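During the reporting period the student researcher (J.K.) took over the structure-prediction task from the postdoctoral fellow and processed the backlog of single-chain submissions. One of the processed entries is reproduced below for the supervisory committee.
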Amino acid sequence: MNQQVAILAAGRGTRLGRPHPKPLTPLRDGSTILGSQLAKIRATFDTPQIYVVVGFKLEMILEAHPDAVFVYNEAYDETNTSQSLLRALRATNVGGVLWLNGDVVFDPALLELTRALIEAEQSFVAVNTESVADEEVKYTLDDDGWIRELSKSVTGGLGEAVGVNYVAAADKAALLRRLSEVDDQDYFERGIELAIEHDGLRFAALDISALAAVEVDTPDDLVRANASLDPRQT
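J.K. obtained the following structure tokens:
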């Protein structure tokens, strides 16, 4: 299966407190967060076209992974993920795009779960219904079971977004338009919300709760991510 994949890896990751870009954070298995993502993408899709959005200390990422296609967010220190995703989608070819936050450590089976919806050309947001932390991006559903709200400020969230998402080919233009309208400091989820509200886009909630997926923002997150690589080790 061929697939376009974008990885958002431009930010500083200040909460983790490392001198290098957060995606280059070493993991216990000897890989890095980004290296692990790339390996799993290439193991799942036949000939994926991978775009990595870079910004902070971009030279380090380019040197570590010279075989990727890089998209530069020159305003990485002044913008949020909405603008990184906007740049990534503009760089892609015709067709749908799977995108990941560059700090997610996940079970490789997660990508296998995305296949059916990608093949059906159905936009989706991967979610974990086992946790609804206040500081995370949460979601609600409409009466038909499609995502209605998607943000950190959602009240009564049904679960958390895990940072793995897909926009179908038919939905990409609308999402691009909405991402170009949001504030530079908005997360990309705001663009999704606007596209749902104003363009009628339908994003499915892909439940991956049975699988490990950890967004690494803090040292504690890194401990959990490393534990998820092999639950038998602590």
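The committee noted the following: The longest strand covers residues 160-167.
J.K. will present the remaining backlog at the next meeting.
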